[in-house]
Design brief:
six-stranded parallel sheet, alpha/beta, 32% helix
Length: 172
């Protein structure tokens, strides 16, 4: 994410605890120090609100990366994801896209209940207008995230919660 933020000053990240706490799994570690509070934005616990802000920013030619603490909480923002972001290209007759990434942990996890262990890949894969990716290796994650941030339309970026936060090497 840092590489893309250095490459394009329109890229920013927004979500719960992404700045001061550096993300629940430390994915945004160091970003606040490097890019500042205008591009690494902590939000209140209001998934629908910050997803909607991200969609609006994408309509304004910015490149938001919206982080959900877990994709289980993204259900609170499903209207923004589907009706505002995913349908824009079709509703505008191909004249307007929504370049946004919705990312966060997904699927089974250690020491959490069933309400925090659902896999949403098939849910989102069945929604027209969304691309869904779920990397497993560090190299896949790096390449897919760079591609997702550069995409012209919404991407759901589902991170494996079991390996998230572990240090994995990437030779790219």
């Amino acid at each position: 994410m840092a590489e893309e933020m250095r490459r394009d000053d329109r890229v920013f990240v927004m979500g719960e605890e992404v700045a001061e706490y550096q993300g629940a799994y430390k994915v945004t570690q160091g970003l606040l120090d490097e890019f500042g509070a205008k591009r690494v934005i902590d939000t209140p616990i209001t998934e629908q609100g910050f997803a909607g802000l991200g969609v609006g920013a994408a309509f304004g030619e910015l490149r938001p990366v919206i982080e959900f603490m877990t994709f289980n909480f993204a259900m609170q923002a499903i209207d923004q994801i589907i009706n505002s972001a995913a349908k824009t290209l079709y509703m505008s007759g191909g004249q307007m896209g929504c370049p946004i990434v919705f990312r966060g942990p997904n699927g089974a996890a250690s020491r959490v209940g069933a309400q925090h262990s659902q896999c949403y890949a098939s849910w989102y894969a069945h929604c027209p207008g969304l691309k869904v990716v779920s990397p497993y290796s560090a190299a896949d994650a790096k390449g897919l995230l760079k591609s997702a941030i550069r995409a012209l339309n919404p991407v759901i970026f589902l991170e494996n919660e079991v390996i998230l936060g572990k240090f994995l090497t990437c030779r790219i």
